[in-house]
Design brief:
Strand order of the largest sheet: 3-4-2-5-6-1-7
Oligomer: single chain
Organism: Hydrogeniiclostridium mannosilyticum
CATH topology of the largest domain: Rossmann fold
EC number: 3.6.4.13
Mean pLDDT: 78
Keywords: ATP-binding, Cytoplasm, Helicase, Hydrolase, Nucleotide-binding
GO molecular function: ATP binding; hydrolase activity; RNA binding; RNA helicase activity
Number of domains: 3
Structural class: alpha/beta
Catalytic activity: ATP + H2O = ADP + phosphate + H(+)
Distance between the termini: 106 Å
Length: 590
């Protein structure tokens, strides 16, 4: 069967061809016709079966058909309401579904938006304000934006709940119920889940209509059959060494390594980096930016190995991923299927290698029972398992608690070390600030007395008195002090009006000096008087050279100097108190 036989419209067929889709997968063959007819759907399918396209393609086609019947919107689409809502548990999976909608609907006039937590919401809010047809969201951020009034779900026609069992495992089931309460009852609901536990069955019975279509795709019939699975029995201390050995001696261009714990993922990534193998780790404690950066580096080939926890197992979709390593055997068999489903996508070949220690043998047998086959053992490696007896479960749990406590102690010591460094920096800054505050105080201390002057030398006080007398002589018109002003002898300073009053005011405080000026205007009056003064006269312009020469002679005689050189030095105003123009000064200099 082909997509054309499923009655997919031409624009979507072109997009699917551009994405490399040749024919639909089994779940797509069963789901697409039911969704196109408007029926509710309950699909039990694992990752890697093509379930994203199974609901994305028919949703796009249904919304596009409604657009053809609706009139064009003059506001450019700002009046668009959310008509399809896709709810998914993780940020990574939300981004992948968003990318799929954009890829399949590239030739359609539909708008898609994605919202998730861990990042600033401003860009997401702006995208919502521009109008959205399809919204992909995680439960937490969706409820936040609903509470803030940025999202209304009263126009939703199609509701998709993806990875429902993972929603339950991550504690989002109450958030999902809040979202369902906001959606109209008359809607089409599509529910996808790898397993159907009782809580998910309860939600399905409540939101799905009785004529729903039920689809089940078993793991043994899809992903597991296309993946080459192997197991290596190895002691726990030798697991990192075995991983390095296989990565260096096998043709493995890229690998995804799964661990049970977050600090285990970080530890494995560090050990690989020490062995000169580029590796990054992602888990729930990483920020959204760090997780996306690590995932992008892995997709681009800048990093060869990506170490992840089970939370990220369903949120990673990497094309051409050839190898998956189970560093720790998962305790739940379904988790094993989710992990290895990252390789062998869409029926392609892939390899899954699991490291099993003696205490994980029981978990391995449960996995083999679930998938219905025995996993072959890989014995060609230098670290065969030496332990022959499993540790009792109570002892194993105690060891795990001890390892967790040791890791917590290391983290606490690292935090205290960072706090100590911060405290030292703060103390150093406080010491520098205190030293800076002491400098002005030191400047106010009395200066040390100068050493006695040599015999015959003038003391500083005598030198100051001599300078004062010279300045007084210049002011009083002393010919010896100012020989150029011999022709204009002025009265002594003590005989000038106001001199005695000025002398008596000297040494008084500022307030007393101000009060001892009878009849003097205040600062406000002086400012007003200065504004009322006559404007400065314009420079005098000479139109006749003979007139200019007469003024030069008069100017020289009046100041007691017939030298034009002295005019260039002293002459700044005409006798009529008009400033000389630039033309006049220029001619004098010539």
């Amino acid at each position: 069967m082909t997509f054309k036989e499923l009655h997919i419209i031409e624009p979507i067929l072109r997009a699917l061809k551009a994405e490399g889709y040749a024919e639909p997968t089994p779940i797509q063959e069963q789901a697409v016709p039911s969704v196109l007819t408007g029926r509710d759907l309950l699909a039990c399918a694992q990752t890697g079966t093509g379930k994203t396209a199974a609901f994305a393609v028919p949703v796009l086609q249904r919304l596009n058909a409604e657009n053809q019947q609706r009139p064009a919107q003059p506001d450019g689409g700002k009046a668009r309401k959310i008509r399809a809502l896709v709810l998914t548990p993780t940020r990574e999976l939300a981004l992948q579904i968003f990318d799929s909608f954009r890829a399949y609907g590239r030739f359609l006039r539909l708008r898609c938006c994605v919202v998730f937590g861990g990042v600033n919401q401003n860009n997401q809010v702006q995208a919502l304000k521009r109008g959205v047809d399809i919204l992909v969201a995680t439960p937490g951020r969706l409820n936040d934006l609903i509470g803030q009034g940025f999202i209304q779900l009263d126009q939703v026609e199609i509701f998709v709940l993806d990875e429902a069992d993972r929603m339950l495992d991550m504690g989002f089931i109450n958030d999902v119920k809040k979202v369902i309460a906001q959606i109209p009852q008359e809607k089409q609901t599509l529910l996808f889940s790898a397993t159907i536990p009782p809580e998910i069955q309860e939600i399905a019975d409540r939101v799905l209509r009785t004529d729903k279509a039920v689809i089940e795709v078993t793991p043994s019939a899809t992903t597991v059959e296309a993946i080459s699975q192997q197991v290596c029995y190895v002691d726990r201390p030798n697991k990192p060494k075995l991983l390095v050995h296989l990565l260096k001696n096998m043709d493995i261009p890229s690998a995804l390594v799964f661990t049970r714990t977050k600090h285990g993922a970080d530890r494995v990534a560090r050990q690989l980096q020490k062995a000169d193998i580029p590796a990054h780790s992602i888990h729930g404690d990483k920020s959204q930016g760090a997780r996306q950066a690590a995932l992008e580096a892995f997709k681009k080939g800048n990093v060869r190995v990506l170490v992840a926890t089970d939370i990220a197992a369903r949120g990673i979709d990497i094309e051409d991923l050839t190898h998956v390593f189970n560093f720790d055997i998962p305790e739940v068999p379904e988790t094993y299927v989710h992990r290895i489903g990252r390789t062998g996508r869409a029926g392609q070949a892939g390899t899954a290698i699991s490291f099993c220690e003696i205490n994980e043998a029981a978990d391995l047998k449960a996995i083999e029972k679930t998938i219905g086959k025995t996993i072959p053992v890989l014995t060609d490696h230098p670290y065969p398992m030496q332990e022959t007896e499993a540790v009792p479960k109570a002892e194993l749990q105690r060891q795990r608690r001890e390892r967790a406590a040791a890791y917590a102690e290391q983290a606490r010591e690292a935090k205290q070390k960072r706090a100590g460094k911060s405290k030292q920096k703060a103390e150093s800054a406080a010491t520098k600030a205190a030293a800076g505050a002491e400098k002005p105080a030191a400047a106010q201390q009395p200066k040390r007395q100068a050493s006695p002057a040599a015999p015959g030398a003038q003391t500083p006080k005598a030198q100051q008195e001599k300078n004062r007398q010279l300045q007084a002589g210049k002011k009083d018109g002393d010919p010896s002090a100012n020989p150029r002003r011999q022709g204009k002898q002025q009265a002594p300073a003590q005989d000038r009006p106001g001199a005695q009053a000025q002398k008596s005011r000297k040494g008084q405080p500022a307030a007393a000096r101000k009060e001892s000026r009878p009849g003097q205007p205040g600062s406000g009056e002086r400012a007003a008087q200065s504004r009322r003064r006559a404007p400065r006269p314009k420079p005098y312009e000479y139109r006749d050279n003979s007139r200019m020469k007469d003024d030069i002679v008069t100017y020289a005689q009046d100041w007691g100097s017939a030298s034009l050189g002295s005019l260039r030095q002293d002459g700044r105003k005409k006798p009529e108190d008009q400033p000389l123009s630039g033309n006049f000064i220029g001619k004098i200099n010539k």
